[in-house]
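[scheduler] slot 2 assigned
[scheduler] job type: sequence-to-structure, two independent chains
[scheduler] chain ordering preserved from manifest
[runner] begin chain α
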Amino acid sequence: MPNGYIHPEQRLTQSEGTREKAQDEAESARNEAEHCRRLAEEARVIRDQHREALETLREGRERLRDAGETARVAGEEARIAAETARHAAIQAVHASVASLHTALEHMKVVEEMRRILRDVRDINKLDSN
């Protein structure tokens, strides 16, 4: 046999071996592809779960932000109410001061009238004597 010559039966055997090897490699590649597909699907499921968890967190933050805004508005309204009450209290104190001042003036007038009446009585006593 000359160099490089392969007998047809031997060539057939090599060809069948090559075919079997190719089929085994193809099967292995299909298995690997299926494995990769399953991993990708699992990764998508996990990604979706993370996305849902992030959305839940975002909604929770939004609710907290809304609650904070509600509390801020309520605090502002309470501050305004307290300021209004403070002004009302100041006005009440001023009204009390004015009322007391008026009462004092009336008391002075009454005292002056009593003094005048005493003086008149004393003069009448002197005139009768």
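[runner] end chain α
[runner] begin chain β
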Amino acid sequence: MEISIVIAEDELITRIELLRLLDWEAHDCRIVGEAHNGQEAISLIEKLHPELVITDVQMPVMSGLNVIKHFKEADYRPEFLIVSGFDDYELVREGLTLGAYDYLLKMDLNEKKLINTIRSLKERLLAIQSRKTEEKTREIVERRLRRNINDLRRDFFADIIKGYPMTDIVLKEEMRFLDIRLNMSNVCCLILNIGAGNGLEDIPYEQLVHLNYAVRMIIDDILTEEHHAYVFEGRPNEFIALASPVKENSDELACLLSTAKRIVEMLRIYLNLSVKVSLGWCKNEEKCIESAHKRAEKALDSRLFNTDHILIWTDIPEYIDMSFEQDNQICDVRITRAKEYIQNNFDKNLSLSLVAEVCGFNSSYFSSLFARHVNMTFSEYINQVRIENAKRLLREAECKVYEIAGLCGYKDTAYFFRVFKKLTGQSPGEYCKKAAQHVLYR
């Protein structure tokens, strides 16, 4: 643990001795400021927030005792180490009464005593820090408990899926308070995706809320027959379920497949929804929830669903790798479709999510796949297409530059100018002149 230190001492010799007595950096200490009197000390402490202040008790303008008194009830209070002369005993005692950590006599000041005092102080600071961390953790848990239990569970699982650092103690406490009964060493993640063909984009918001609730209830009812399960909404038109078998058996994978089929069928029968389900399974590994979710996401991204609209990631990693190799040709076709869509619609407001949906991918997977296949990012490709068309219009059309910017999908003319110059090395005006000269001398 590194601690920052302010030295408050009016005697130059004592200050120099304190600075030279110890290799402060070797002991994880930084001297961040020096004060010649108490008033300067207060200013430095309020500005720098050091963990430790080494102070004389008697100084001009304001004494070290008054500095300690000033911070006794303050929001920020550093630790104080008093250095004093033999005749300052009464003042030292008052300083200790006010809360100073310890004192050292100037006449007896040496490296060993200073090191021992600093080491002892660090242990105290670590204990205080640990206690504050525990209190903060407790406050977070209690605050979350006051909110809706389902929202709490969703936030809890979202933190784990994102890889948010969480100690085993906090993990167990949260699971106990939220009544989560997952077996953390045997977790299945189901991601259910409701595609664009279901027409959800045309449903009023209130109806969509009720529909999403009905979807969650159907998934939950089916899963909880043989599993401890928790269902929550993920991205738009996506639901995530985490489950552990109530009783372990040798046919867990077959049971999961059967459960997924029932979910797909019930959503079709009762809500007239067509869904795809990807399953990721993790057993006897660290971070099982996070791993199971990643595997389910990879399975979803591969789009290699069977006729039942279900894809399972097994415990054999080669399975998904082999699937991706077999899917390369499909990806090539879809990327070509994406490029054609951009070329035919460059004048419109194109977004990554829109083009991904047109090509049957989710946004994050499509972004990385597009860059890998085209050797440039999605945004770079759109700008390239738009600027090529802008060059054509500048040569052929009798339009003003701002009109051409709009025809090429740029609402901001200034931004169009910047992109044009970046990609061509010249402004639109310069390009027009050169193009005209080329026609003239051809």
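[runner] end chain β
[qc] chain β: DSSP finds 18 helices and ten strands in the chain.
[scheduler] slot 2 released
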